[in-house]
Predict the structure.
Amino acid sequence: MRRIMMMVLRLFYIAPYYFYRIWNYSRQENGNLDEAYAYIKKVTKAANHAGRVTIEAHGLENIPRENGFIFFPNHQGMFDVLVFLDTCPVPFAFVYKQEVRNVILLKQVIRALGAIGIDRQDIRQSMQVIKQMAAEVKQGKNFLIFAEGTRSKMHNKLLDFKGGSFKSAQMAKCPIVPCALIDTAIPFDEKSIRPVTVQIYYLPPMYYEEYQTMKSTEIAEEVKRRIEAKIAEVLLEKKQKSD
């Protein structure tokens, strides 16, 4: 949490205004999502800069031109969503675990973007979330969901992807965008405030025509495979450069 404290301290002079603006967006029913997202993106960039985190984004051209798709990244830590808010050029909402719904500022961001809370211990509620997300994606909203279900504590090594997470894409018949996050556990999960660089790779999407005959578990395995392959490729290149 040291880096979070550094972010707050370095932005103390303007943080109350940032909070007020986001709080105001969170109170607006049927508000302008594009406007709210643009402002949250601005605040996220300022916070990441204050926290001495550099984000290298690759593959932005792979993000579908038409809205109504779902990002499926690996999950390393609390910083992951900030990577997307900093780099993704189009608005999206995300699925979050119910335990964080009352965290200050995150609570307001959740409301402003129309994020959805999920209780993974409640199968019925989880299925309702999947159906709700599918319905909203059909209407042109973009989403992010972590298919591992919880963050991996092994940094760049992935947990198994849960097939149930992909049922929303199957219902919506929408593009699936695999995303590889590299070193994103470092900013918030390590007790350090040293400058750090993290990476995100937006991989080519899987369109419905590609996965329509696959089971949700098969889709999960394929998306995981693509992300693991990209992470291995990047880490190998990094190792070769350092040798």
Notes: The CA atoms of residues 95 and 116 lie 5 Å apart. The mean pLDDT is 92. The domain at 2-242 is CATH 3.40.1130 (Glycerol-3-phosphate (1)-acyltransferase).
